[in-house]
Design goal:
258 residues, alpha/beta, D-Maltodextrin-Binding Protein, domain 2, five-stranded mixed sheet, 9 helices, globular
């Protein structure tokens, strides 16, 4: 005679398994680590742009992998640079990139130990110009196109004698330059080159590099008011140190710039 076993209903199984599943789910969330919301500029390829609202670019990859090495997942929110920095300042975003910490914005944010990259902020004139080697001082009294709320290096940014013409996109400024509505256009070197390549019929061969106003370091800027910003800044510093000391940073550079 076989021993009798108590019968267990499906509902009883659910009751017994529910607390076990809850513990496993909580453990999986704990292992996943925190998530940080970071603003990514939507129109600065190849560093950061957002085709179909999906952030991509050199700086996007660097920020993502630096945080990952510190156990943090990044949720990127693609938006225009001026709004990105404003929402970071107000605490709606934890951080935003890519920013030059000049004396005008340095006090408004928290900054990592190391920059994401260094670059060249150039001055362009119409093709045929014989000018070369222009510096910030040479631009005083002249009309120069600049992108809204961008930084171009301390000396340029604080010089009030430059007659700035603000545009929402670099391509708008270069069109103004072609139309002789401004004398010069200020733009980051790789950004300008990428723009010229992307619209060769319109821009190829139309401009001349006539000077460099700065070779600044660009950073990810952290909010002073977002509740998680100080912790995320520390996590970023931790992960970014690991990234810089590995071959991976150079591999990301090669992917976007070679």
């Amino acid at each position: 005679m076989q021993p009798a076993f108590p019968t267990v209903s499906l509902n009883m199984y659910r009751v017994l398994l529910a607390p076990i599943l809850a513990v496993l789910l909580a453990a999986s969330h704990a292992c996943a680590g925190p998530t940080v919301v970071v603003g990514a500029e939507d129109d600065w390829a190849p560093y950061s742009s957002a085709p179909q609202q999906h952030a991509q670019g050199f700086a996007v990859d660097v920020v993502r992998e630096a945080f990952a090495l510190a156990g943090v997942k990044v949720e990127f929110r693609a938006l225009p640079y001026s709004r990105c920095m404003a929402e970071t300042r107000s605490g709606q975003l934890t951080a935003c990139f890519d920013a030059v910490p000049n004396s005008l914005i340095r006090p408004l944010y928290l900054w990592p130990r190391m920059p994401l990259f260094s670059t060249r902020m150039n001055i362009y004139a119409r093709a045929g110009s014989r000018q070369r080697g222009l510096r910030t001082k040479d631009l005083e009294g002249h009309t120069v196109g600049v992108q809204r709320d961008y930084e171009y290096g301390e000396e340029f940014d604080v010089n009030t004698r430059i007659r700035r013409r603000v545009v929402d996109k670099n391509e708008y400024g270069f069109r103004m330059l072609m139309a002789d509505r401004i004398e010069y256009m200020a733009a980051e070197e790789r950004i300008a080159n990428a723009l010229f390549r992307s619209k060769p019929g319109e821009f190829a061969g139309r401009f001349t590099l006539v000077g460099t106003v700065a070779t600044p370091d660009l950073f990810i800027a952290f909010s002073k008011t977002a509740p998680d910003s100080r912790e995320m800044l520390a996590r970023f510093n931790e992960g970014y140190d690991k990234l810089l000391n590995s071959p991976r940073y150079r591999q990301i550079e090669d992917r976007w710039f070679k």
